[in-house]
């Protein structure tokens, strides 16, 4: 029975190639969509393979610039790191892919979209929620979740249907990659006591193999976004690519964490994100120079909330929009240059300057230029301390804190009467 | 006119030695108090110098163990880092010193306590607030803030009163040190564009001078506190000292930040805290294995609040007590061993194991042992996404997000009709 | 096929009576469990009906005291109100019922428990999550969710199996009730523009029918919990029942809100909770007298988190335990008497006294007894304002805020030159 | 010695009239500034009195509209209530007054501004911080804080200098008033056990004297702001004035609280704010219909932060600007009509409708139109409960929660074996 068209997010790999045929078996015409978000991908080869396998149409697109402008940059403004650690590499590309699934479904008059995620990953949640947020009437199909093939079944099915099966030995790792980083799962990494082996990494050198010479990079920020590297202005895609290369060469950007997955369990995740790690570190240092203390404090919680939204598939949500408004306003003054030292796996901020610096020499200095009103301290401390002093006075009839251990003899008091 | 006794927090340096005489000039009998909290100090020499300068009594005490048990460990349980970065080195010793100032004032029948802080630092606030919280009737004197001496005036006064003046050239840096780290201010560090010079550091090697060989340490935690290093049980003071040495040798533990001071301005602060940096990093990694996701999320904000309290002099406050109760409960399951790699300035967690691990292999694995119910995902996603889908349906009469840039032409859509 | 024993949460109504038979049809032996948590229930009649309908065993228990001690009181300590409004009436009884389902399953050697919730309520989530948290190996059955009976089908099935069907006309409302309040849903309430009709309420008078005389009650709190009413000490169950009666008579305790359900949609909910509303209001007023400002501020967020946990079925969770520790510590000083005026639907706190009051007359007064140091204000303001003044100085080269509307002519400035 | 011009915030009362002369005595030319923000004030009489007393120039301005547009409305968007209770009546007028002090100082070439606040109030902080934020080079004088007059001294000084002294007996209360409410302090209110006497109130009837008939008002909101009352569009000033009148007549809008003052102590504050109370209550109810659950949750904390900023004098601060951006975005969908019942001191929301309602009938209903997918619940609950179930499995080797009281005998289990 003919069910209409489905738009399949197509990576070009075995799973989604098999999915083309499987969806056709279910009665769908299959349109594929492949996006270049900075991973290693041959778009033309993808298109060809899709059409050969039976797709009735194959869209391929370079979305790197849109990825950076509309997804990576807002997340950078928000210093978005899930659980304070993960720069949301894969999580940020999912709403972009969902947007185009919905868009192509509209163009093609498709009744459904499909993706190659399994039933325990979080990308299934992100893609389904984002797609249906944009076009609620679309069905979302998940062939890999539904077909219940074993690996061998899948290969048999592929051979049977003339789908090319990769001959190389399967890597032990499961990888996802884009311009904003690379995530590595499975294989030996499933044991959290095991140090990630060198062969898990591709973008970053082992620290001990990194250059013996220190290298400095200077990053210029404008309204919270990087606009130049070592004084040379460049667009976002180029800047991230260049910084990935430089920082990666020095072994900078590896992340290794136990992460709470959206679907309710913990997972060990390894990432390599050279540019994100350096940019987030640099911007946070610059913020401490240019933002008011209470803005820094209020932001901490909102940054985590923002990252959570991106992680759980709530990119197209009103809370995310309101947080963007907050960050856009707050980041207007995050301007300046950050000097970062790269060496043997570590990036270190070693210099900061900004036209908006709130670090004011003549307040901070202990030298003779000091303009701070020292005598104000007396009144300040009086009022500042009033709540705790009042508290202790009210509760003092009990016993002062320092008598609590009166019976303890742990601190012999040594004193000497003079004369 | 005789005003009674004052207890002076006495470091043994020029400022507080001059303060002894100056307070005597004001009509006070001076009792000094010197605490060993892990800095380089010769307690007996201090006592002798105090008495020679005119103190009527001189207390000297080794408080390292109490410092660790009652101040450092609670702060570690709370992952307390001010503005997410500073492990509160100096801030943690101030309430301890205040406690003993109040205690000795009680013993001695003193009417006041005194400290050697200036009028723009934050230690004046911490000491005055903490001391008066414990004993509200005490006056707190700040001779250095009040005497309005220039450096030359002070030296003249010292010479005139027979107080020994150090002959060595004054270091450009202002230093405070204890077992939990070392803070370095002033001199060339006042320019945030300047990389901290090597001579600012004492506990940590320059990364390029650190050993060429990787070193691993294994830290055993029990209820959120470290109890063994490389399998060897040791008490807190010994463990911190040993870890300072090992991590410092590898150049680990340097911190460099623009910090918001309590008295309303920003300051560039440099710290070296080898043990704190490694312990905090290790424990946070272990927490991601042993704590529930919502505990980790809820804690983030409370950790910052805790650090803020310690930083601003609110150690003896009811909010701190309530937060301690929270952290003590939550940390009960933070048990396990963390393997940390030290190399050229960087510490990296590379292994985790715990009897309380919430990382459950057969849920997380993608291998055949998988026990996760994949089919549950369908219902979960349906309900999980319902709020954003509803939102977009209600607001959809306007225009879907993906049409916002309808007029833009930035993404030419490439597609190929098959056949 | 015989499947073993199931423990059914049994209300005595039609749904759960039908469920007894239906579960027996599925191959289970059915043990029923009925708890008295303060609703109108005849425990002995329930037992009899269960056994008559076919249950192999019927447990009935008065759990009112445990309900108050272990569920209501901790929630009151936390000022737990979901979305700031709903005192969690039904949500608090679910973990208690789950605990006994698990306990009886253990005693009876049952393989499953069952409840009468539908598939869109939140009680299904609470009961299933709580029960499996306590005894993860138990299956949880939801006959009403699974049997897909229409109302008529159900009545036919009941008649066919000799289950008594109530002859009275079904109320338009769906009700749940316990000592901590009564929740009312459905019927005319599904239209949020409709004012809840008088017949929806049972515990509270319409304000215009309430007594014309003001009534005062005095509630004594000890460590955050009420221990006496109008000076008369009573246990929790008695105190709540008495206060429900008094406040309800004056029409106090009605709540009407749009509420975000756990399962992803909004619902209009009406509650009547006379005692909870008065107790929460009174305690919050007393807290403002006895708790430090920063404790009040920090608690606000934690109270909402606590309520959320109870609402979403996470009662038996580590975050709830840690929050309990926080609240238990913080509430130690919430002691005192609160005087509340009840009149025509409204409760108003009109008097507060406490042995721990932080309201200190001679600080607060403007009369001659004033002990506040007015001169301290000058220094305080200087330092307090420093961050915003610095901010504006740094950003002032742009234009001061008050010139932003320079071109506007909206405020003609009227002035008069003298002489 | 002539010191230049000072701009004095002039109320027309005794304190600020004496201040004119006192500042002239100190060597200043005095320019007065009187703003109408909705209090009872005769601007022309003020001008005349100022000039008669010796002011060299007297500005009087009706700033009600600007007060509402730029101060009250942003605060309403943020649901700003200090400590969750106080709608910031006085706090909101201070930055407006500060803005005009700075503006007039610029026009007049004044070197200083002055205000009539005492040394323990918070208005001194607000005015000084706000004024110096706008024009950091201005001195801020506080004659009443500095002159150390007793009440009798002040009256003598006034008589001596020909300043008219009010002959009526001084009210026991200290009052501040504007369009957004009225604050009442001092006198009998300083005892928190005393119910506020009727004579403290001016805008609100005693509930028992309010009309015996219920009255309904319908408020139309657009993007979070009220635009019509009972269907009649009106501007902000008119709408607030009208609603103050209607609600006040029914005794609605009284607030009585222990409040944490900015200067470190607690104070008992009484307010009457008829329009603010109704508008805040109505808007919050409408938000629960139109905002997503996570927006409501995230806002709770930001609303308190916003109120805190306004309360402590940080109106002209970057955090406030960023929060405004958040609220402006989030409030775009807060559109609709709220029906409020007023009766005997109480306002109750009894009806809600909105073009943006997220309350979706066919999801929420339990009737036959139900469109919710009940079967999704099974998978949802599975994954939703996974974290707590995992937690308990990992920690289960200890003992399940329900055995904790195994030894307790408080719940005799009643059961009956059938047959």
UniProtKB/TrEMBL annotation, chains A, B, C, D:
GO terms for MF: argininosuccinate synthase activity; ATP binding
Annotated positions binding ATP: 9-17, 35, 116
List of residues binding L-citrulline: 86, 126, 174, 183, 259, 271
Localization per Swiss-Prot or TrEMBL: Cytoplasm
Keyword Ligase included in the entry's annotation: yes
Protein name: Argininosuccinate synthase
Organism name: Acetomicrobium thermoterrenum DSM 13490
GO cellular component, one term: cytoplasm
Gene Ontology biological-process entries: argininosuccinate metabolic process; L-arginine biosynthetic process; urea cycle
First-listed, main subcellular location of the protein, grouped into a coarse class: cytoplasm
